[in-house]
Amino acid sequence: MTVDLTVEGRVATITLNRPEAMNAFSSQVLRDLLAVVVEVGHREDVGAVILTGAGQKAFAAGADIAEMKDKTPNEARVFAELGQMVTSAMERIPQPVIAAVNGFALGGGCEMALACDIRLCSENARFGQLEINLGIIPGWGGSQRLVRLCGAGFARDLIYTGRIVAADEALRSGLVNAVYPQADLMLKAREMAETIASKSGLMIQYAKMCLGRAFDQDLAGGMRMEADLFALCFASEDQKEGMAAFLEKRPAEFKHR
Questions:
Q1: In order of start, what are the domains of the chain with their CATH numbers?
Q2: Is 131 marked active-site?
Q3: How would you list the strands of the sheet with 126-128, edge to edge?
Q4: What is the value of pTM for the model shown?
Q5: Known catalytic residue: 253?
């Protein structure tokens, strides 16, 4: 298996486990990752997910170029759609996904990080959409998610030049949420994941739905969706528990329903 899954408490960690190839995405890796993401998405005992790469050099160095180079246009489309199925699955699962980027996140690796809800990285992290250097363009959502996350200017810069940016520039641009020493990255990612997982899983799901649709509709439509889900909160046990705990000055004990 090229992708490992571990669950501790309410936190699942998905590890791309192909360090000898800098965790590059072959079709098999994509299929394995898709299966794991879908499995985690159906687990009610998981409240948050960490996505990372094995080894110290790379989160994921991108798609497997040796596999890609001789594809026909039709085969290339199938490969693009497979990668997009994975990134879309990470966006659709109810749990927030935190990318813990250790080392290179290039091409498809950057696109996988972009599909996560939150990106944390180590000081040695390097990001880039290098496809233009290979005579292609991003195919797994890079041109769409990067512009939404960091703005058109930065997205055009990275995609047109194919340059690599260091962790400090990634932080300034909004590409990542925080930068940590490499030895602390997984600890910090787990701390954040445990904080998220301690909240009501149902309310986190509603919040993720609202945030995920923010760019898919106009403001009025987004506000209606938010009001609908806000109202639905009041049909839950967790709303009653959360507000009772606040008034009673005690920690809430959410049941995730």
A1: 3-197 (3.90.226.10), 201-247 (1.10.12)
A2: yes
A3: 58-60, 104-106, 126-128, 165-166
A4: 0.94
A5: no
